[in-house]
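hiii, so i know i said id send this last week but things got crazy w the move. better late than never?? heres the sequnce for the chain we talked about at the cafe, plus the structure i predicted for it. fair warning i was half asleep when i ran it
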Amino acid sequence: MAFVDDLLRNAGLQDAYADPLGAVIEFVVAFAAVYVVGKTVIYPLVRRVLNQRGMDAHARKPLMKVTQILVLFLALSAAFAFAGFGSLLQSLATVAAAATLAIGFALQDVIKNFVAGIFIFTDKPFRIGDWIEWDGNSGVVEDISLRVTRVRTFDNELLTVPNSNLTDDVIKNPVAKDKLRLKFLFGIGYGDDIQAATDIIVEEAEKHPDILDDPAPSVRLTELGDSSVGLQSRIWIADPSRADYVGIRGDYVTNVKQRFDEEGIDIPYPNRTIEGGLELTNVADVVEPADD
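okay and structure toks below
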């Protein structure tokens, strides 16, 4: 763009001022042109591709930010080249590489969480709105970024969890599939009718409108405890959520308990037998004979 320098010289500027001013103008014009083209062409194109691939909103947002950064970097590179700042660009690249290395050592945890966030977006172990459990914690995912994930607990506490904690640990996502199996252990007395109790447990499951018939409810004798016989019920619910899990399970267990009471089936308390003796010494010094 030598014509810019010529225009400045024709305007009466000396070469000492025309050359650097012309380079600055060329830099600004090239940067603006490339950046506008990137914003109007590349940015919408990337958004369209992501939408066609059916990506979730939480996954599109950081990818669009990365695209914006790449467009900005491309515009700067083109502007440096157009303005003839190639040597300056090379020097800046060297400085940037050294700075990146130093920052990389200082921000290892941040980079680790950033990489973990990319894995979360690509592998999709959970989505916004999912109920997840990990390392003794549980809650509903409210937001996913490239560094942290925000989870709202069922006590209405907001947990900001580094992404690496979620990718390095085992995550349980009970609502990842369209069905969820619930289990509950009912204890009955050793003198109660096991078949009658089993029939009640199954009947109450079949009567509940939110418990699926396929897979069918089932009951298995799984435990012979110190004071009770354990009958484990297995039921399935569709389109599970935390509210469905708690509500359906509570209704079902309540209904079974009421039927047990009506049928005279006992849910025994734990019993403990204490053995041993009590030895008293110096009884004669403590107990006095009655006067009568």
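btw The longest strand covers residues 179-188. thought thatd interest u
miss u guys!!
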